[in-house]
Amino acid sequence: MKVKDLEFKPFIKAEDIQKKVKTLAKQIDIDYADKTPILLPILNGSFIFAADLVKQINIACKVSFVKINSYVGTQSTGQLKTLIGLEESLFGQHIIIVEDIVDTGLTLQKIVDELRSLGTKSVEVVALLRKTPAREKNIEVKYVGFEIDNEFVLGYGLDYDGLGRNTDHILKAKA
Ligand code: IMP
User: Does the beta carbon of 104 sit less than 6 angstroms from any atom of ligand 1?
Assistant: First the structure.
């Protein structure tokens, strides 16, 4: 499959993704058996993963989609990222961030910090994919679907320049 200038080849099959999603949901069911967590999928990339995941979760839970707004700060810190779209108070709540992929962990680090500052009871992360942990900013991702090498992936919500989200499987860029 070709998207713009890049050629992609099949990587993770739809059925393997679905199996993994069920496993992650089962673990969340166990860990949050006596709680009512709020799942916080980060748009746009996690919309398909989040939809499949919540269907497999059996405990009571809430779902609230959020987006990240990137802007250039006035200070030398450079690019700041903040959450937009939060509709309810997260104070005293158990939060599970739903991410498509963790690469450097920079995005996640900012979100986790922001959520902690809101007085949440706990903040954990479920990510479908995680690239080589060496690249990460010491951020703990409690639930990981697939560990992958540092390669560019596409599909099942993940995009290349806005394109290619609409597949039920994951592809990777040809070397
Ligand atoms: P991080 O801040 O470096 O961890 O970047 C995470 C975000 O970058 C993800 O939520 C994705 O939106 C995007 N991203 C990172 N790697 C890929 C990839 O291989 N394909 C598509 N998007 C990616």
Answer: yes
Whether omega for the bond prior to residue 44 falls within 30 degrees of 0, making it cis, is: yes
**Cα dihedral angle (125, 168, 82, 69), rounded to 10 degrees?**
180
Q: Choosing from 103, 113, 149, 161, which is the catalytic residue?
A: 103
- Give the atom of ligand 1 at the shortest distance from the alpha carbon of 42: 10
> What torsion do the CA atoms of 119, 120, 121, 126 make, to the nearest 10 degrees?
-150
Is residue 161 annotated as a catalytic residue, yes or no? no
Q: What is the pLDDT of residues 113-134, one digit of tens each?
A: 999 999 999 999 999 999 986 5
* Domains annotated on the chain, with CATH: 2-29+37-173 (3.40.50.2020)
